Structure formats: structure tokens, C-alpha cells
Amino acid sequence: MDNNGIDESQPQIDSSLKSILKVTIPVILSTLSINLMYLTDRLLLAAYSFDAMNAAAIAGNLVAAFTYLIGGIAGTAEVYVGQYNGSKQYDKLAAPIWQMIYLSLLSIVVLWPLAYFSEYFNTLPPYYLSDGVAYQSVLMYFGFIPGLIVALSAFFIGQGKARIVSMVVISGTALNALLSYFFIFEMRQGCRGAAIGTVISEIFQVVLLTAVIFAKKNRKTFNTVKNNRFNKELFCSCIRIGAPIAIGNFTALLAWCSIHTIMGYASKDLATIYGLCINLYILFLFAGEGASKAIASIASNMIGRSDFESIRRTVKVFIWLTTGFCFCTVTPMLIAPDWIVQASCNLHEGGRFLAGQCKTALYVTLANVPIEAVLYIYWGVLLSGGDTKYAMFVHQVVFWTTVVLPVYIMYKFGVLSSAAHVFFLMMLWMTIVDILFYKRYRLMKWYNKLV
User: Fold this and answer.
1) How high does pLDDT run on average in the chain?
2) Which of 62, 222, 233, 348 fits a 20 to 30 Å CA distance from 256?
3) Other beta carbons within 10 Å of 109
4) Distance from first CA to last CA of the chain, Å, rounded?
């Protein structure tokens, strides 16, 4: 204990496999649970109606563009917590969390008007309008809650205590599945029911995380209550570091929304095949997304104590572990994809004829998973040092020029005939970004101590 009663015996994160797995496995499980939550909602809606699934996917991307805008900034609290933890400034750990709580609550000023005017503020084709607006409006009214979850989770992930977050997220995912089924089918609420189930499960997660953060032990060790004052300097610093990520998230989700909208205008069949494949793709990305969060936490702790050599070793371990895990995960699907294609396409009457086209697109989709996992790892390293402007710029410029623009051009010239075209373009995008991120990492321009 120091003179202020702060415990200075916090365990330090190092580059050993045991330490890496201790942080990474819970974060990956959390990401898997979140991705399963989205997949479960989409599959339940597909069983209810393919039109409902497509409407929720398009409207959901638009909502996510705004919630990820907030979450991208709120997530920078993890970097500050990690560097404070690495430099043993434990009495300051809660300060960035509070700043991002305030930011999430302030976002209501923007989100509620957007929710109210959902009927006019959307990119939905006419035949998806009713279901999509119902889904969009509910999620937009409560769009500040995901930001709160990100901010509260950062308190634990930044310290390498991700197991608490994974337990909360897994519980929330299970609750969401039950509630979504009840509201979609038993209450016959369709898209609106799926959104209501999601919102209730998110509120549940906020309550649990808040209870743990403000428990007596954390109040005493980390001053989680005393650090609740608004800190303009820290608030602006989080925004400065997080704004590029937020803008990147926003433009990325707008891009995904645009692609799905273009597919919807091209034909309902293309939109359905793309929707089914992207649902599975989101699920299988859990390893890469989880690894990105974990390495950002680990590397920020190492930056806090000026230990670059450990970061270098950690990156190598993550590359081997994550890509190896991704290959093991997707290989069985590449060898024998028929069962999941049939399961997806038979969810609703009329889906069987899509199986052949869906299988081709699925091969390309799953082949992209290990490639994007590498992208996520280097993204996490750049984030740990606050090098977010470069990461956002490269990620989005390459994505819009190699994926979104070509898809639109193919649509305008009437040659967009397969969802697989989109996933081939994605492969090109990810390969280019992997190379550019690796070069940035080797040049050390990302390494920066923020606290």
C-alpha cells in the first residue's frame, strides 16, 4: 500500500505465453459471445422472414455506424487504463472510465433525434422499410448503452482482468437469445422484438459491470468513486486519440451498410446470400477481434513501463496463435461446408434454391478470416501507442477504393451477379492493409507513451 491506501502489488502483464493467454482467452470468449449474439438475432429473424433478416442487417449497420462512433472513442479508455496500470499509477485508473461514461451519456443528444426520424433517416430499399425502421428506431434510442459497456469493460481489460468482462458478456448473450426468441416469435414482434431483446440484454450487462467496478474493493484500491469528476484535459485527450478510430468505425459501418443496400437493390437473392455469408463471417472473426483488444491491452501495459522488447515478442506469439486458431476453425468449414449452408438456407421456406450460390460465396468468405486476423493484431499494436490516425486513414481509404467503389460500379453496369465478388474484393483490401500496417509497425512510428 502507498500513503493513499492504494495497493501497488497489482500483477504485471509480461510476454510469457501464460500471461498472454490469461488476457487473451477471456477477451476472445467475450468477442465470440458478442458475435454469437448478432448471429443468433439474424438467424432467428431469417427463420421468421428473410426480408426481416435483410432489413435488420441493413438498418443494424446504420445504427452500428453511430454506436461504433461512440464506442471507438470510449474504447481508448482501455489504452489509458493499461498505461496507468503498467506505470503503477493505480489511483488514476478510473479517471478515463468516467470521462467515457460522460461521453456515452452525451451522445443521447444526437441519437434520440435520429431515432425519432428513423422513417426518413435510413438507406433501406422500399420492401425492407417497415421492418428496418422498427429495428432501427429501438436500437437508436438506446444507442448510448453500447458505449457504456465499452467504457466499463475497459476498466478490466486494460488491467488484463478480462475474465470478468467475458462472464458478463456471455451472460448477456444468453439472455439476449432467450429474449429475442420470445419477442420475435411468441410476441410476433419480428425485427422490433429482436431489437428489444438486444437492448434489455445490454442494460443487464451495464448493471453487472457497474456493480463490480463500484464494489468496495475497487472503490478502495482504484478510487473508482473519487475519480468521478469531469477532467477536461483527459476527456479531450481520449477524444483526440479515439476520434480517428471512431471515424474509421463510422465510415466502415456506412460502407458495410452501402454494400448490403447495393446488394438489396441488385436483387433480393443477392442480398440474402450476402447476408447469410456476412453473418457467418462476423461469427468467425471473433478470434481476430478478441486478439486485437487483448494485444492493445498487453502492449499498452508494456509501453507504460517502457518495455518494447516484450511487445515485439508478444506480437510474434499473437500472429502464430491467432492465425493458427483461425485456420483450425475455418478449415472444417472449407472442407465440408454443406451442412451449415443447408442449415442457413433451410431456415425459411424458399431458401433451398440459394444453397449453391451461398456455398461458393462461403468458400471465399472463410478464406478471408485468417488474413483479417493479422490485420486486427497490428491494429491493436498501433492502438496501444495511440497511432490511430494512420490506422484509420489506411484502413478506410483502401476499403472504399478496393471494395465499396468497385461493388457500386459493378452494380451500375449490371455485372454484379454473385456475392462472392464482394468477398474476393475484401481479400484484396485486407492483404494491402496487412502489408501497410506491418511496415508501420516495423518503422516504430506508433510507439508513444501517453501517460
Assistant:
1) 86
2) 348
3) 9
4) 21
What is this structure's pTM?
0.76
Task: Round to whole Å and give the CA distance between 318 and 279.
Answer: 25
Cβ atoms of 303 and 83 within 8 Å: the answer is yes
| pLDDT for res 308 | 82
* 3-state secondary structure at position 428: helix
CA distance 216 to 421: 55
Residue 163 sits at φ, ψ, to 5 deg, of: -60, -35
Radius of gyration in angstroms for the set of CA atoms belonging to the chain, rounded to a whole number: 21
Query: At 10, is the pLDDT very low, low, confident or very high (cuts 50, 70, 90)?
Result: low
Helix axes 420-443, 405-412, angle to 10 degrees: 160
Cα–Cα dist 13/85, whole Å: 9
Q: Report how far Cα 404 is from the mean position of its chain's Cα atoms.
A: 20
- Greatest mean pLDDT among 140-144, 245-249, 411-415 lies in 140-144
- The predicted pLDDT at position 5 comes to 46
Percent of the chain with pLDDT over 90: 39
pLDDT (tens digit, 9 = 90+) per residue, 59-80?
988 898 889 889 889 988 988 9
157/33 Cα distance (integer angstroms): 16
User: Does position 351 have pLDDT exceeding 60, yes or no?
Assistant: no
In the block, which residue shows the cell 465478388? Answer: 421
Report the b/e string of 173-204 with b at 16+ CB within 10 A. bebbbebbbebbeeeebbbbbbbbbbbbbbbb
Cα separation, 200 vs 264, in Å, equals 30
Question: What HEC string does 340-375 produce?
Answer: HHHHHHCCCCCCHHHHHHHHHHHHHHHHHHHHHHHH
CB 341 within 8 A of CB 358: yes
The Cα 311–Cα 380 span in angstroms is: 11
Per the listing, cell 477481434 goes with 289
Give the three cell numbers for residue 324.
493458427
Rounded Cα distance between 305 and 85, Å, is: 9
Q: How many CB atoms lie within 10 A of CB 444?
A: 11
Confidence check: pLDDT of 255 > 90: no
